[in-house]
Amino acid sequence: GILAPFFFFFSFFNLQVVNGIEIYSMKIDSKITSRFAHNVITSRAVNRGNVHKEVFFDVELPKTAFITNFSMTIDGVTYPGTIKEKEVAKKQYEKAVSKGQTAGLVKASGRKTEKFTVSVNIEAASKVTFELTYEELLKRQFGKYEMFIKVKPKQLVKDFEIEVNIFEPQGITELEAEGTFITNDLQNIIKKTFSDKKGHISFRPTLDQQRTCANCSQSVLDGDFTVRYDVKRTAPDDLQIVNGYFVHFFAPTNLPKLPKNVIFVIDISGSMSGREIQQTREALLKILDDIKEDDFFNFILFGSEVQTWKETLIKATPENLDEARKFVRGIDTAGMTNLHGGIMRGIDMLNAAHERNLVHKRSASIIIMLTDGQPNVGISNTQEIQEHVKKAIEGKYPLYNLGFGYGVDYSFLEKMALENKGLARRIYPDSDAALQLQGFYDEVSNPMLTDIELNYPENEISDLTKNSFKHFYDGSEIVVAGRFIDNNQNHLTVDVRGEGANDALSYTTQQDAQQTDKAFQEQEYIFGDYIERLWAYLTIEQLLEKRIAATGEEKENLTAKALDLSLKYKFVTPLTSMVVTKPEDYNNQDGIADKPIEGTMMSASLAKLTSSSFAFTVDGDPHFIISVPQKEDAICFNINENPGAVLNLINDPVTGITVNGELIGDKRANSDAKIQNTYFGKLGIANKHLDLKLTVTPEKITIQNGNEKTGFTWLDSVTLQQEGLTLIINRKKNLVLSMGSSASFVIVLHQVWKKHPLHQDFLGLYTLESDKLSEQTHGLLGQFFHPIDFTILEIHPGSDPKKPDATMIVKNNELTVTRGWQKDYRRDPKHGVDIPCWFVHNNGAGLIDGVHTDYIVSSLF
């Protein structure tokens, strides 16, 4: 909808010179027609060596884009990518996997980007040309369309060029281009022209202009290149009709702003402590500076309990804003996460304000909720929360859910927002989190219309995209596209309705295809059937969005429609994959390109983690899983030691946190096994600064605070808060623990059949928010709370056809590793979720500091 990410974002590819590979040409050619961008990235390389070499093609794309084509041409022979239904593609791919292929070609790589990577071995003196095409509908924000290009070739390139051609039938009013790396010398190299309907930008530095200094081999091209533009708007509407399809752009200007009623529902649970709550306070103070006097607002805070600033919405007078600032400065964290209580209090308050006429009749109401965790107090079943929220809001106003960090159940937040005419946005736990929060508010801070409907003759139009919208915000744009029943129809009438600050908006507008044809005489700027592809892009995007909140037969129908269009128009979407074939020589292996989905996690490795929020695991026999977010991958290893041994897992002398685990074995030794199975049968977690100790076994949980002891069993359901300690026991499943303001831990209970002749119950440990421990943290797990890097080389078939071997370079050691899977049992204690990882043999030798016996300690505390 209107508030999807408002950027056309392209990050320039990075081809590395390796062993004599020369990259002699890089080019991005972008053609934008009526906001629909068609982009072709081309790179050419030659092998200057005497033997076959590997060359890489590495591209970052906007998450909102769909790849439509890829090919490699090697010495005149083209190897195309083919787009197929995901399941069909994966079956074709299984053969390649058995030969040693271990990863897809597309991964999430940043807040707004996905990385497409492919490599190929080519013969000496051979040339290769890579060509990637993707398409995207540009969305308008703050009155402009923006194209963001990350330029980082990492080398001098003989023929380097960015070229952007824009054609807008309405006419272009402004066009600008800038780069963070642009020096005074490079400023004149950016060529920019626009007149009437056409705009053109090119950037083509020579080799000398690319150098950081006169005789340097380093490139100055390292940073962001941004293009912004907008179009003429003599009327609110622009209708275009081409070959049986139409698109309607709606962006009225000069309307009076609607007063707004906004309720901020803020998570203040213990996990928000420290930087998170500080950044939230900072953002709210900035937002208070922007609230207008006609607006009404309030704050609702939820931890274990729900508290409100005022009992009802109040007007944003200067006096009330001053009082609000004092309240915000005093917001602090406490307790667990009563999300249901907080959001329902906000909805009830907003409903009451409308029923009692406390707010303007012509106003726009919104709820903005910020949370960093999952509900665990009050009603914690997410399906039940969704049902309650939808029933209470009844479609009257949008709900915007902001998920802070990676501990949130993003799919739950997204479903709940979409069901209530809003959207979800992830707030990344970085130094600019306050700016991210404020930036989102800025997008929705200036509503101009509510209840907008764009109605078209039902007997003339089929396959219409979304045509009713709760709010229209200043500086944005509504886009509707459709297909005519009669392919030859060349006329369209639209009935436009909406509610403004002073009165209702109601008028009729129309367009003839001849007017569009007249505008499109500059054929060199047009790429094929762009309006039909725009309609297909928008339809697929909206079908996939509806699918998120759908169930049963409705979800199946939406999936079938989106899949059919994805295949017909050759878009790589979450329902399709592109199989990339390569020459069979030199161990080249086929690859598969899938579309990553926001909110999905690789469980313990959390596919999109940053270094501030690693997830670390020890579970099973005991399997250690180390997330390495820079690689979007994981490393795993086992420790083989005798039952009764106590291993130091985490030791932080600064925060006083220590975690040790005692091993247990099977009920009787297996005489056929070379190595006996062992598991963690007892865990001890202590905070020496608070004189707190927690002992966990498969039978009971004991808390010792000084000389006082408190005990629970796994049959209990407990939420306990006392000074320095928060403990939740989810009956017969797991417990969640935090001590002071340090990291949080999840302990999973594994229960086996009591009469099992061999196995017995055991425990698994999962560490979250490890960034809250100090840099001096060590231990078998703790040493990996600091960033770790590794390189994988020479992937080749191993002893198991489904688990290839490779060489890993880590900590200056060269190790033989095996691609495999370990289990994450947090969500599903019975079956677990498979986590792909590189397995390091021999008790983690070469990966862990020292040897594993260095971590054996005398007792649990």
TrEMBL record:
**GO molecular function list:** serine-type endopeptidase inhibitor activity
A Pfam family (short name) is: VWA
VWFA domain: residues covered? 261-444
Give the keywords, sorted.
Glycoprotein, Protease inhibitor, Proteoglycan, Secreted, Serine protease inhibitor, Signal
Subcellular localization, as worded in the UniProt entry? Secreted
Would you kindly state one Gene Ontology biological process term found in this protein's UniProt entry? hyaluronan metabolic process
Domain VIT intervals = 7-136
Which SUPFAM superfamilies does this one have? vWA-like
**Can you list the GO cellular component terms from the UniProt entry?**
extracellular region
Q: Please list which residues make up the signal peptide.
A: 1-20
The UniProt entry's sequence similarity note says: Belongs to the ITIH family.
Q: What does this protein do?
A: May act as a carrier of hyaluronan in serum or as a binding protein between hyaluronan and other matrix protein, including those on cell surfaces in tissues to regulate the localization, synthesis and degradation of hyaluronan which are essential to cells undergoing biological processes.
What's the protein name? Inter-alpha-trypsin inhibitor heavy chain H3
